[in-house]
Inverse folding.
């Protein structure tokens, strides 16, 4: 089942000034799609287009019959709410049953080692703790589609493993994930398919095998392939 079907002809922040062009892809059930590119390549602009945040666009964005959750690259919280009060708020907005959400919230807080900080203000957390809090707030609704912008920022190795294990569990449940990242070594290990964006254009897409075939590097890493596809072969004279 297709959870997200994207056809962006152009999009930008000002009329007549397109930041991204000609980007097409889908996200299917259980897939983890890596949106790959350096800072400034157009990854966040692509995500903002998907979320309907850009006025100046020519695009068709079709979501399947399912809910989705978005994790921004920078955590956002209400100053006056504790983490548990944020969870209460999300549960009320989404119409979650009290027993169901409290049980899942407790499990997530324990898993991410924030149970002792649930009644503190997330705005006072460290960056890593804030990132984990955002993950908890996203996962509490059990969405069928995750749109995640640079989720690995600020996570220590332990938190990163917990996050990746959580995402794998969500995939096994059937959820699809679109994850923007510039951490290529991790992306290569966990993603099913890749979208390589450079200078606002989709330069290549497909599985690791397909990406390698496109750049004629049968044993190349995602890092090697990215530089060949997006910037030209750095080893050529």
């Amino acid at each position: 089942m297709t959870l997200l079907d994207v056809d962006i002809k152009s999009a930008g922040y000002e009329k007549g000034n397109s930041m991204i062009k000609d980007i097409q892809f889908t996200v299917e059930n259980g897939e983890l799609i890596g949106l790959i590119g350096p800072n400034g390549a157009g990854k966040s602009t692509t995500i903002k287009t998907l979320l309907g945040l850009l006025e100046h666009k020519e695009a068709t964005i079709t979501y399947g019959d399912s809910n989705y959750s978005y994790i921004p690259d920078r955590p956002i919280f209400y100053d006056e709410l504790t983490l548990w009060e944020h969870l209460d708020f999300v549960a009320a907005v989404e119409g979650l049953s009290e027993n169901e959400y409290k049980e899942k919230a407790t499990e997530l807080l324990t898993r991410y080692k924030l149970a002792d900080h649930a009644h503190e203000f997330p705005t006072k957390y460290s960056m890593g703790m804030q990132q984990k809090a955002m993950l908890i707030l996203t996962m509490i609704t059990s969405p069928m589609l995750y749109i995640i912008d640079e989720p690995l920022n600020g996570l220590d190795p332990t938190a990163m493993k917990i996050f990746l294990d959580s995402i794998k569990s969500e995939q096994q449940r059937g959820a699809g994930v679109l994850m923007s990242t510039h951490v290529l070594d991790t992306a290569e290990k966990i993603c099913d398919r890749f979208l390589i964006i450079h200078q606002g254009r989709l330069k290549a897409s497909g599985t690791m095998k397909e990406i390698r075939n496109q750049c004629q590097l049968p044993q190349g890493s995602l890092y090697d392939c990215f530089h060949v596809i997006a910037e030209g072969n750095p080893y050529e004279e």
